[in-house]
Fold this sequence. Notes:
Elements: H1 6-14, E1 21-29, H2 34-51, E2 55-61, E3 76-82, H3 85-93, H4 95-107, E4 108-116
Antiparallel strand pairs: 1-3, 1-4, 2-3
Amino acid sequence: MVAFSPDVFVKFLAEEDDAPVVMLNLLRFVPEGGRERHLEYLRMAEPILARFGASILFRGDGLEILTTGPVERWDAVLLVQYPRRTAFREMVEDAEYQKAFEVGKSALADIVLQPLQISKGL
């Protein structure tokens, strides 16, 4: 199911908002036309992302997993950079984005959405 965890989402938005954030999107498509609907979602979403100062840094298809253990293969990965956390919130609340999001949700069997911050000290 594609839904935000309300408590985690509120906590994420409450933290410092002065630095860019990158969203790691691990995507698993529904078997029947999911990849095609996801591409349609991206066509709809890219101009909206730009309006909020966000951009796709990387988009790639998953290959075979090289490590052992209980891991699952993902069909695709996206890295999307937002100028700040509130830009992400404003985008997901935007009416035009909500329409694109419905297309995107219909493409996915599963998703992991994990925000990343630039490491200090690496």
